[in-house]
Specification:
- The chain has about 280 residues and is of the alpha+beta class.
- The chain folds into two domains: about 110 residues, Rossmann fold (3-Layer(aba) Sandwich); about 140 residues, RNA polymerase II/Efflux pump adaptor protein, barrel-sandwich hybrid domain (OB fold (Dihydrolipoamide Acetyltransferase, E2P)).
- It is about 35% helix and about 25% strand.
- The protein contains ten helices and 15 strands.
- The protein has a six-stranded antiparallel beta sheet with strand order 7-8-9-15-14-11. Strands 2-1-3-4 form a four-stranded parallel beta sheet, sandwiched between helices.
- Strand 1, helix 1 and strand 2 form a beta-alpha-beta unit.
- Helix 1 packs across helix 6.
- The longest helix has 18 residues.
- The protein starts with a strand and ends in a 5-residue tail after the last helix.
């Protein structure tokens, strides 16, 4: 079920703010798909708020000419949000309950217009026989899967017939620490080599997903939406990101093989962590 993130006007001491809050709260009681957002939490980009915001359809309730809710949504990267200007909806209605009822009707109509987002059905799984190269440095053990290609951005690619699978290297998942949110691109999206296609958020950092090969996304690992921890627990297996139909399989020759990437990752770890590699 696609969730609906409603961002009410923050002017609680003004009629528009009171009406927007009442309408949102009443709608949330009768609809399980409604989430009421907070302009304060969104402004401060609190992790839980940002997760709801990024994974939902967004509806902004603007109580005055400043359109603060819509402006904040745009500032936080959602140009696709729906804006409802309260005074245009309620018109000359003077009764508070009448205004709330009319705004609820308008909001419901807008919600019902939205189309569900495209999601993928996982039709294949990555191979389970994974042979690893392991190196220890300081308190870490770095694992690199053999038979894959790696980008300098620390993403891997495996060849599977006429398609390729993309995922996160063990080095990158260790640098990110605990991943708690993943946003994936839509099925059918075309990306060029080293384009960004989605993002991952951890307790330490926000990381763009940099696709190592050009092509069209034919599958996305939607299990990561509910279980982003797979990236940490199983980066070469359950934590895969996309399956693509590549434009030019020869692009893989521009990437590193496992042994070359291990050397690269160890040097990068030494630089980023600031400790001597044993």
């Amino acid at each position: 079920m696609e969730r609906k993130y409603i961002l009410p006007c923050a002017g609680y001491d003004r009629p528009g703010g009171q009406v927007s809050r009442a309408a949102a709260e009443r709608l949330a009681i009768i609809r399980d798909d409604v989430i009421i957002g907070s302009m304060g939490a969104l402004f401060k980009e609190r992790p839980g708020e940002m997760r709801d915001y990024r994974t939902s359809d967004v509806f902004c309730l603007d109580g005055c000419g400043e359109n603060c809710a819509s402006e904040l949504a745009r500032a936080r990267g959602r140009n696709d949000s729906t804006s409802i200007v309260i005074h245009e909806v309620v018109g000359s209605i003077e009764n508070f309950e009448g205004k709330v009822d009319r705004l609820m009707q308008s909001l419901t109509q807008e919600i019902d217009k939205t189309r569900p987002r495209v999601s993928s059905k996982i039709t294949s799984e990555p191979p389970h026989e994974i042979e690893l190269i392991e190196e220890k440095f300081d308190k870490f053990t770095l694992k690199v899967a053999k038979g894959l290609k790696y980008s300098d951005n620390d993403f891997w690619v495996s060849t599977e017939g006429e398609q390729v699978r993309v995922g996160v290297s063990d080095f990158l998942q260790q640098m990110m620490s605990d991943v708690y949110f993943v946003e994936l691109a839509e099925i059918g999206t075309h990306v060029d080599m080293f384009d960004d296609a989605g993002l991952m958020e951890s307790t330490k950092i926000l990381v763009e997903i940099i696709v190592p090969v050009s092509g069209s996304i034919v599958e996305a690992n939607i299990s990561l939406e509910d279980s982003p921890e797979f990236i940490n627990e199983s980066p070469y297996d359950k934590g895969w990101l996309y399956v693509l139909k590549p434009d030019d399989i020869n692009e893989l020759e521009l990437l590193r093989d496992a042994h070359d990437y291990m050397t690269y990752a160890l040097a990068k770890a030494k630089e980023e962590i600031g400790k001597r590699v044993e």
